[in-house]
C-alpha cells in the first residue's frame, strides 16, 4: 500500500516538474515579431533557443505594425513563402503540442513580410525534466544522431 502511495507521489512530483519546465519564448526576443533588420534575424533567434513540447511561442507585434503568423505546410512552402498553411490570427500565443514533434515552419502572411525575413523554423523536442536555467546542458545529453540531425537542419536553414 505504501509503495503505491510512493509511486503516486512520485508521479505527482514528476508532473509538477513538467509544469515548471514549460518556457514562454517571445519570438524575436526584445525585438518582438516585427520586420527584422536582416533576413536571417528570426532564424538566428530560433537557432539560439531550444523548444520543448509544452513551451509557448509568443508573437508580439510592435505597437504600430500589423503581423500575422502562420505555419507553412512543408519546408518547401516555407522556403518559397507559400501562404497556404494554417494562419493563427486569433491569438498571439501558440502552445507547442505533443503531436507536433520535429520541425515546424512559421511565417508572417502579411504582404511580403515572409520574403523580408519574417520566417523561422524550430525543432520541437520531447518534454524534458531539466529546469529552464539548465536547458542548455541538454545539448550534451542528446543522442548523437539527434544532435547531428539538428545541426544539419540548422545549417540547411542558414544556407537557404
Ligand atoms: Cu509581418
Automatic annotation (TrEMBL):
Residues annotated as transmembrane: 140-159
Keyword Oxidoreductase in annotation: no
Pfam families: Cu_bind_like
Positions of the Phytocyanin domain: 23-126
UniProt keyword Membrane present: yes
Keyword line: Membrane, Signal, Transmembrane, Transmembrane helix
Signal sequence residues: 1-22
PANTHER family: BLUE COPPER PROTEIN, UCLACYANIN-2
Protein name: Phytocyanin domain-containing protein
Amino acid at each position: 500500500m505504501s509503495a503505491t502511495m510512493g509511486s503516486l507521489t512520485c508521479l505527482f512530483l514528476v508532473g509538477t516538474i513538467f509544469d515548471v519546465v514549460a518556457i514562454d519564448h517571445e519570438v524575436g526576443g526584445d525585438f518582438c515579431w516585427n520586420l527584422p533588420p536582416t533576413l536571417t534575424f528570426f532564424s538566428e533567434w530560433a537557432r539560439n533557443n531550444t523548444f520543448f513540447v509544452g513551451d509557448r511561442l509568443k508573437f508580439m507585434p510592435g505597437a504600430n505594425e500589423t503581423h500575422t503568423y502562420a505555419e507553412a505546410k512543408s519546408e518547401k512552402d516555407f522556403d518559397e513563402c507559400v501562404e497556404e498553411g494554417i494562419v493563427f490570427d486569433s491569438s498571439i500565443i501558440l502552445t507547442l503540442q505533443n503531436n507536433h514533434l520535429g520541425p515546424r515552419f512559421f511565417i508572417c502572411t502579411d504582404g511580403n513580410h515572409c520574403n523580408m525575413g519574417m520566417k523561422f523554423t524550430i525543432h520541437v523536442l520531447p518534454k524534458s525534466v531539466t529546469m529552464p536555467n539548465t536547458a542548455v546542458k541538454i545539448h550534451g545529453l542528446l543522442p548523437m544522431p539527434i544532435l547531428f540531425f539538428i545541426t544539419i537542419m540548422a545549417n540547411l536553414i542558414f544556407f537557404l
